[in-house]
Amino acid sequence: MSAARLPKMKVLVAGAHGRLGSRVVALLLGRGHAVRALVRSEAQADGLRAAGADAVVGDLRGDLEWAAEGCEAAIFAAGARHRAELGAIDGGGAAKLADAAYRYEHSRFVLCSVIGADRPERRQGGVREFLAAKHHAEQRLAGLDMPWTILRFGRLTEAPGTGRIGTMVTPGASLTLSRDDAALAIADALERPHLARQALPVFDGDRAVADALDSIAPRPLPPAQAFPTGAAAPLGEAQSANPPDAPDMIAPDAPPLDADVDWEGDGPVPREPVGNEDPAPGIP
């Protein structure tokens, strides 16, 4: 049985001109959603306006709150073009967009991350910096009381999409993913409220995207906690309206595997990161 779907929304897409983001914009428009496309230049905005999007120009390193106003959902599909920008874009930019979506009470937020972001300390050099930036964004998002979903992608490729993915990492799995299928997973995850507050690995597999996402069980609500009240409550607890976050809110992708990301950028895979406009560049 199909999972519940959300109605049509106005969706803010950060990184809307990238190789992944542009695919996402096209899918959302085709499904009847309104799209506000956040891009870096007017030249990029003109092309997206011609496609039917409300394109706006902004810098992910600066103020983003204005871009989220009037939207009902947001997708972070952007990525640093240069290694020096990883912290500001993949980390800080994603965190600021999440804060803005929370400020305007968005009904959904989808963060494009990467397999291995839960354990950046296992890698070295530029790859570790890339994973650490993604980890920072994930942790900031997990601290917000909003219906977010994190998609941790395998190494993105330009192979034609098959419409099929896997979501359970196993030893020996090929952790690659067509950008076509990554975009489809983003669009489908956005519309599925049962995926709220879950982090999912996504890679090339043998199950239709919609079926794979529908099969994921909703995250159970944490057990009710009895908090002291009245004179028995410390001042801090008496003033707090929110219980502490569950320590397992973001679970690892799988048992320890050599399945972390390599940031390859455009062209042949280098030993160290180079520029890439996508949110989930390379992954082994």
Describe the structure.
The chain has helices at residues 21-30, 42-51, 65-68, 86-103, 125-142, 179-190, 209-214, 235-239, and strands spanning 10-14, 34-39, 54-57, 73-76, 108-114, 148-153, 155-157, 164-166, 176-178, 198-204, 207-208. With 284 residues, it is of the alpha/beta class. The chain has a nine-stranded mixed β-sheet with strand order 3-2-1-4-5-6-10-8-11, with helices on both faces. The protein starts with 9 loop residues before the first strand and ends in a 45-residue tail after the last helix. Residues 235-245 and 254-277 have low confidence and may be disordered.
CATH class: Alpha Beta
Oligomer: single chain
The CATH architecture category equals 3-Layer(aba) Sandwich
CATH topology: Rossmann fold
Number of helices: 8
Helix-and-strand structural type: alpha/beta
Identify the strand order in the major beta sheet: 3-2-1-4-5-6-10-8-11
Distance between the termini: 34 Å
Q: What characteristic shape results from the CA principal axes?
A: globular
Order of helices and strands: EHEHEHEHEHEEEEHEEHH
Percent range for β-strand residues: 15-25%
Tell me the major beta sheet.
9 strands, mixed
Instruction: Tell me the Rg in angstroms.
Output: 19 Å
